[in-house]
Amino acid sequence: MIMAALGVPVSTIRSVLNHAEGGVTKIYNRFGYAEEKGLALEAWADRIGAIVR
Questions:
Q1: 50 pLDDT exceeds 90?
Q2: What is the rounded CA–CA span in Å between residue 27 and residue 37?
Q3: What residue segments make up the domains of the chain, in order of their start?
Q4: What is the pTM of this model?
Q5: Torsion of CA 16, 31, 25, 44, to 10 degrees
Q6: How many Å apart are CA 53 and CA 46, to the nearest integer?
Q7: Which end of the chain offers a freer environment for a tag, N or C, measured as fewer CB atoms within 10 Å?
Q8: Which DSSP symbol is given to 18?
Q9: 9 phi and psi, to 5 degrees?
Q10: Alpha helices in 1-53 (DSSP H)
Q11: What count of other Cβ atoms lies within 10 Å of the Cβ of residue 44?
């Protein structure tokens, strides 16, 4: 995946893809990671833009 190659942490990629967490994390971690997801998607968009140019 491009985001992984760009150095985006796997936990952020999971959040961007809306994959469910399991166990204790699913119950207690309610943080939305909006800023992290935004930065990851901006980096991805920049990379895709560079590919298609």
A1: yes
A2: 20
A3: 2-52
A4: 0.81
A5: 20
A6: 11
A7: C
A8: T
A9: -60, 145
A10: 2-5, 10-16, 23-28, 34-52
A11: 18
Tokens read off for 33: 């990671």
Q: What pLDDT shows up at residue 24?
A: 86
Q: Give the closest residue to 42 by CA, choosing from 16, 11, 10.
A: 16
The pair of three-digit structure tokens given for residue 30, joined into one six-digit string: 């309610």
Specify the pLDDT at position 27: 85
A 10 A CB-CB count for 8 gives 20
In this prediction, what percent of the chain has a pLDDT beyond 90?
A: 66
**Rounded to whole angstroms, how far apart are CA atoms 45 and 26?**
28
Question: Is the predicted pLDDT of residue 22 greater than 90, yes or no?
Answer: no
Indicate the burial class of 52 (C-beta count within 10 angstroms; 0-12, 13-18, 19 or more). exposed
